[in-house]
Amino acid sequence: MNPTAASRHKTAAFAGTLALLLAAGTQTAFAEAAATPAAAGTQTAAKREAGKLYVRKVLFKNEGGPKIDEALIAAHVSLKPGDEFSRPAQSATIRSLYATNLFDFITVEPIPDVDAAAVDLRVSYVARPLLVGIFFEGNKEWDGGTPEAQTEYEQIIVNKLDSTRPEGGGNGGVIEFFRGKLIKECTDAGLTVGAPLDRVLVARAESKIRKKYASRFPFVKISHAVKTDADAGTATVTFFVEENLDTRVTEIKFVGNKAFDDYTLRYAMQTSTWAYTFDFSEWPGNRFLKFSPIRDLGRFDYDTYRRDLVALKNFYQNAGYLDVEIYGQPREELEEGYSFVNNEETEGDMPLEITISEGMRYHLDAIRISGNDLGKQHARFTEEAIVAMLAQYSPRGVRRGNEEDFDLLFPGMPYSPQAVNVAVEKIREYYGQVGYLNCRVAVTREPDVDTGKVTLKFKISEGEKSYLRSVVVEGNTTTKSEIILRELVLAPGEVFDMVRMKTSESRLKNTSYFRQPSGQASVSLRAADTPVAGQKDLVVSVTEAPTGSFNFGGGFSTVDSLSAYVEFSESNFDLFNWRNHFRGGGQKFRFRIQVGTNSTTIEQSFEEPMIFGREIAVGYDAYYKSDTYVSSSYNTVDAGVKLYARRRLFERVYGTFYYKIDNYEIKDIEWDVPQFVWDEAGYTLLSRGGITLSRDTRDSYLFPNTGTKIALTNELVGGPFGGECTYYKMRLDAARWFPIFNYQEQTLKLRMRADTAHAFGNSYVPFFEKIKYGGPYNLRGFRYAHVAPFIGDEPYGGDSGFFVSAEYTIKLLEQLRFALFYDGGFVNADSFDFSPREWNDDVGFGFRMLIWGALLNLDIGFPINTSDDNDDGMRFNISFGTSF
Fold first, then answer.
1. Gap between the Cα atoms of 83 and 324, Å rounded
2. CB-based burial label for 661 (10 Å; 0-12, 13-18, 19+)
3. Which residues of 395-415 are buried (b: 16+ CB within 10 A; e: fewer)?
4. Mean pLDDT to the nearest integer, 696-718
5. Do residues 506 and 475 touch, judged by C-beta distance below 8 A?
6. Angle of helix 417-432 relative to helix 498-510, nearest 10 degrees?
7. What pLDDT does residue 591 have?
8. d(CA 508, CA 481)
9. Coil, helix or strand for 294?
10. Under 8 Å CB-to-CB from 628, ≥6 apart: which residues?
11. Helical H runs in 512-663?
12. If you average pLDDT over residues 10-39, what whole number do you get?
């Protein structure tokens, strides 16, 4: 072969090899890494396939930063000597090295050997330096941290790296480790001493420090600098803080607002003014009980301020002012005016001014419906029927969040964009109730700028009617599918109703089976297409949550005094499924023991929510209660069991039928007690049956803001049920909650209760079954059970009683409420005697605190009208749980 031909042959071979390499791809990336060289492997030509490249050896090159052990790098290299070179393996190597967080720069470069048809891999890297110190400069409000509390090893590092301190560093230039208020923001961001320096984490830490300052120093300036020591392979980070003024909002002034007064507009904002106690400038309804030094209300946050401007614009537009313009002060102006340099004499007091150009108010003139072809066959879908539907409230629970405020749309009302959005959803749901799940609604508006009237046109694309083919349940690793299916109000073969689908989702969320630790219910329902035209599947996706709990603790109350308890409960119990640890059946099981200085209680309860697949709950409560707080002259013991069945009768009305048997004991009697106590000494067997009708519409069981709760109980003791006494008892208990002001969830609760008892024939009502008021659950200005007729020094009780209460609560914190209350009532000796001649009442205040999932009530009551037997002065009550 002549030289020219050989040259051409060599050139062609090189070009072919280069083409293969380009096809495989040369990939570079930024990261850090290190590895040890691997021994080059060889492979016989006989084993190699023509046209493929094989790795001959792997080389490592440190382009900067500390040197990394090559064995560590080699462990992350997917291509070994002798392996066939491939682009996916090259990419996997880069990803794996990046995942170590050790590198700022990585390249995996193939170097071809034309003669040997082989590839050498060169891994080049720049390693990240080791972070050995975090410094702060200019921080006055919060310390950076202290090294004194660090381990001996960390202090040695401080001494060893003393030369790396930046000149004039914050806090005397001492390296900070994991302590202090600002250093905590760094560790929360993932920036820690002893780890490789990640500049992304440095930026994240700077952002968290800025956010911490923003609540009090809205114009703070935060920056940082990184100093590296190439020889030592280390780095330090210094954060520079320019705090400026501790800023408080002293006034919010509106200019140009004619339609709404300042109070109304402030209510739409989150930004509040600073006040030390009560602030009547924003009353009613907005910020009233502030205590700004404690609650930090009245601070300026620019991001909140910007959101407030948007909220004000939305408020005006939803009131019909579509052309409104809201002008706030720009950040640059505020920052310049309230810095140390320009406005130190203000001491951070900031008035805000918001300018409003309201424009014309638009009203809805007419609503036009098109595309409603079903209206030709069904009156439900005519234009008139759809327009009438939009003017009515949605069924309870369908609208969510602030949608309830925009649930109506009718001609003549101020035009509201949000109400239009809700109307579109209502039309889709309206069609969805009869199976038209794919209904689409387009809306156009035609405003008349001269008259301020708007015509709305809804164009409906109905789609085809759908039926429910089957229900698919996903994610229920513990709960049985039938337990989930029984909460659904949709069944296969029925028309696929979107409203009932939402109701089913709400019912599943109200169970405790799928509630996550964050408190959000992990349940979603959706319609899924099927191969069959006109049929859909309902997919129910759930995520199981822990449903069992084992609790123990102690407490104090004015009734039980000091007490300790242990309790086990399981809200997703399965009595016959030991293989699944007795979980997944939807049953409820509870066992509790409480021992106190004044009482001992043992309780065990069980409930099956649906018996034989029907919506009837059955269960029992077994209990043993020994009390000494009823009287200082005798003790009581009550042991019994209650069997019950409960079902929903209609709407939210439930009926509960029960049978209860008690063996009541009076013991440890003092010699000087009245005769009526001696008459009941020993055991009394009481057997009774009863029915309770109840309705509960509260929006929350712990802190209700709206709704009602009513319960009427009638029971017959003795008679056909046996026992030692025969009498009749009735109780009516009702309460209603009224939201007064949205701010701080200010709520008024009104409650009333009426009781009566009546003995038959020669029988009687035992004194421990008679009506007595007083204590933490009704008349809070009186001792427990001391609002009642007395015999001697002991409350005997009566056969009729009436009680009313008014309580006003204000949210101070998320789990804390302040309460003002009035209680009044009486107990009379005869049955059905509701004369208020023995009226007792009190006023007081208290707190409601949620502690470890239980509601703690602290009340101080001051009696107003008393009787001769219960005039004991002010009472302090402590109790757990919710009252009626």
1. 69
2. middle
3. eeebbeeebeebbbbeeeebb
4. 90
5. no
6. 100
7. 95
8. 12
9. helix
10. 598, 599, 635
11. none
12. 36
pLDDT digit string (tens) for 769-809? 999 999 988 999 999 899 999 998 899 999 999 999 999 99
Question: CA 727: distance to chain centroid?
Answer: 48
**In this model, does residue 687 exceed pLDDT 50?**
yes
Place of tokens 């023509």: 50
Helix, strand, coil % in the chain, rounded to nearest 5: 25, 40, 40
Instruction: Give, in order, the Cα–Cα distances in Å from 472 to each of 54, 438, 583.
Output: 51, 20, 21
Q: Residue written as tokens 């009438």?
A: 388
Query: Cα separation of 281 and 250, whole Å?
Result: 11
Residue (of 416, 417, 419, 431) closest to 385 by Cα position: 431
Phi and psi at 825, nearest 5°, equal 175, -175
DSSP annotation string for 438-470: T-EEEEEEEEETTTTEEEEEEEEE-----EEEE
* CB-based contacts of 675, cutoff 8 Å, min separation 6: none
Q: Are 328 and 253 in contact (CB under 8 A)?
A: no
Which pLDDT does position 854 carry in this prediction? 75
Can you give the C-alpha Rg of the chain in angstroms?
38
Taking only the tens place, the pLDDT of each residue in 507-518 is 888 777 886 655
Tell me whether residue 348 is exposed, middle or buried, using C-beta atoms within 10 angstroms of its C-beta: 0 to 12, 13 to 18, 19 or more.
buried
Segment (H or E) for 846: strand 840-851
For the chain, the straight-line distance linking the first and the last C-alpha, in angstroms and rounded, comes to 106
Give, as one character, the DSSP assignment of residue 285: T
pLDDT bin (cut points 50, 70, 90) of residue 291 is very low
**Crossing angle between the packed helical segments 199-214 and 181-188, to the nearest 10 degrees:** 130
The letter for the amino acid at 566 is V
Under 8 Å CB-to-CB from 368, ≥6 apart: which residues? Answer: 383, 455, 456, 457, 458
Strands of 3-154 (E only): list them: 27-29, 54-64, 103-113, 118-127, 130-137
**pLDDT for res 398:** 63
Q: What is the pTM of this model?
A: 0.59
Residue count of the chain, please give it.
884
Q: Are 212 and 189 in contact (CB under 8 A)?
A: no
Query: How is residue 772 written in tokens?
Result: 């007595």
Quick check: 799 and 833 in contact, CB under 8 A? yes
In contact, 28 and 109? CB cutoff 8 Å: yes
Count CB atoms within 10 A of the CB of residue 90: 20
Does residue 513 sit in helix, strand or coil?
coil
Look up residue 214 and give its two tokens. Answer: 């923003």
Cβ-contact 121, 79 below 8 angstroms: yes
Structure token pair of residue 46:
């006989």
Residue type, 809: T
pLDDT for position 15 = 37
Phi, psi of 308 (to 5 degrees): -65, -40
Token pair of 723, please? 């026992």
Alpha-carbon distance 359 to 373, whole Å? 39
Distance CA 474, CA 106 (A): 43
Q: Give the burial class of 430: count Cβ atoms within 10 A of its Cβ; 0-12 exposed, 13-18 middle, 19 or more buried.
A: buried
The total of other beta-carbon atoms located within 10 Å of residue 666's CB is: 23
